[in-house]
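Lab meeting minutes (informal)
Scribe: AK
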Amino acid sequence: MIELNEDAKYIRDLVKRHCQWFAESLPMIASENIISPLAEEILISDLGARYAEGLPKKRYYQGLKFVDEIELKVEAMAKEIFSCRFADVRPISGTVANMAVLYALTSPGDKIVACDIKHGAHISSAVFGAVGLRGLNHIALPFDPKIMNLDVDGSRKVILQEKPKVLLLGMSVFLFPAPVKELSEVAHEVGAKVWYDGAHVLGLIGGGEFQRPLHEGADVMSGSTHKTLPGPQRGIILSDREEDLELRKNLRKAVFPGVTSNHHLNTMAALGITLAEFKAYGKEYVRQIIRNAQALGSAMYELGLDVVAPDLGFTKSHTLVVDVTRQGGGRKVAQDLEDANIIVNKNLLPWDQGTSQEPAGIRLGTQELTRLGMKESEMKHIAELIKRVVIDHEDKEKIKAEVREMRRQFNKVCYCFTEGAPAHIFKEIVRV
């Protein structure tokens, strides 16, 4: 065996240490998940070294006869799962998918109305993100913090007054369904396209939960494929406007040559495995995600944590938000929890008067814990662990030891064809 040089050893060691850390932690970042062992196998295939541009059967490269068949099959499964007639699976991330939609639907100087980033919107919809890069005029829709959602009446007034080119719905802090039905009619009345960013809730939608935006008035839906949909990190664009040939043509052109060249064939094929598994296990999986989120929210609230939206059941998605102002703010609490091997992220709250550097809240997700086989009883245990760190200020090393012990019981990937196989974060540790 060839001896590794110091640089390779250094990187490999850091990767192993990261894997070990997450194998002993509670991963609760709402925008992450783990792929199945079968999907992971595809990632290390020869596809990762190959190149494709264009659409199947219309490529700029040779050697893609099998790739074409894979991509057509992945598109077909996406259309089946999301009950739509158009799918483009080439975007390599959710933000790239969003950029493609922006290029397809708008021109520089156009108006776009959307939720403000301080109310939970994704950074790609901000003036310093993809919306600004496209040169659009961003107009914030009014938000009602009591319901953690858009103010429907106020938003209608803004749409009628501004007559935007696009109405964008969907957020990164996505607790409750967006008012697609309520706002799409007025948007179409003024000639606007309705775009739904379903990155966080894509799996929930595919599993028949949360809402059905493409059947509630949205013209196009974009998303990332690695959150509640437990696939590899890439993006997708969906539409059910089969009759709108111009829309479909513009979306295809915006993806390529607009914002992608090669579209990472190994992760595209791994998405296909994920979709096949999701057809078999998706409904059961997403229902458990939501049950877990609601159980975790209820348990934390009963233990004295200020979980947002208690009167509404805390959430109808995978996400929970906790106001930790009394405990020192989001930055401090997120770090304290990380020190105890509980991984969450700081988050702005709608009533936050601070800056993005000093948010008052934390955001948690249950999709990865659910993927590891945890259910409602484990959520109650996790709520107690969080409370002991955040409120009781118990020794974090003691909590960390308990987290490690808990994870020893949950180290397999569930809701997949290789159910019971070790999670990918364990594989290298087991081999070495």
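Next up, CB showed the second protein from the same session:
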Amino acid sequence: MSKHPVVIVGSGLAGFTVAREFRKLDAESPVVIVTRDHGGFYSKPMLSNAFAQKKNAESLLMKDAARMADDTNVQVMANATVVAINPQLKQISLSDNQVLKYDQLVLALGADPIQLPLQGDGAAEVLSVNDLDDYRRFREAVEGKKEVAILGGGLIGCEFANDLAIAGFIVNVIDLAPQLLGRLLPPESAIFIQRKLEDEGIAFHLGTTTQKIERSGGKLRLTLANGNIIQADVVLSAVGLRPRTALAAAAGIKINRGIVVNGLLQTNVEDIYALGDCAEVEGRVLPFVMPIMQAARALAPTLTGKSTPVHYPAMPVAVKTPCCPTVVSPPEPNAQGEWKVEGGTEGIKAIFSHQNGQLLGFALMGSAVQEKAALTQQLPTLS
């Protein structure tokens, strides 16, 4: 048995999955999860489609910290903020001056919403939804309101837009990119989903940015770079996430876009590992459920002494837009190839292939999503 516990910082999907997988292999060694929030477990992807299902924050919470501790046989330290890591002494310091020794340290810190540099006296009222507490605040803010403006037309922005429109809100979406889901879709596919979302009553303002948000007569007044003015009761920012790296950087752990780790999820510092939204695994930041699950399943045996590199199978992503069912497996950023798009009013299939014919990615919409399984089998693994 280890002298000190395996300490996991973070109680999201990454942190709790590592704990569960570790317990399958080692029932005795102490494990401590340290988290700055309530320590309960919920499905984060559910946050962007909970309005239409009339779910509040309480109903989304699957298990509280006490239940999670019992289920995984670990200690959960909730509402505890880690302020420093000392790799030499193998300990972490908490904001209440507690010091916790570790045998191995796992950083599952997640990511923070990117904050846009907005002007105006209403800029501070912009909300984002990155966790259950954020969702609770957002629901309270829109209670009895009608108009919501969303900054960002990516995956999360589109999911929230569709969800809020179904729930009866008037929704405007603003994005600098000329198309929706710019990092995932070819232009033809983006047009297809935009039209489906517009049929739900959602208005899009693409190729422009929000410059100023002012409080005006009980409303928020958004001034766009193209000169247009939009009014809203609530503004939601969904422009993306930035991996939480400051704690690691201050401890001398290498960072780039995320906390840099190798295929074993090891940082450059002995006995410190990272996974999930905060991690950059061999150059990739993969903030989706399936990569996180794969990483946790590989890390658990590594923590028990059996080095196990993470391997990623083909992992298509489902975009939760009920008006336009969508499944995307985007090609690698530097992949050499081209998109070929076919389809009609009921569905559209986009295939990204190398010039040698090797399938490297796809985007399926509407009736075309039924081809997901067959196409996924043809994709290469990421590692």
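CB comment: The chain is about 25% helix and 30% strand.
No objections, moving on.
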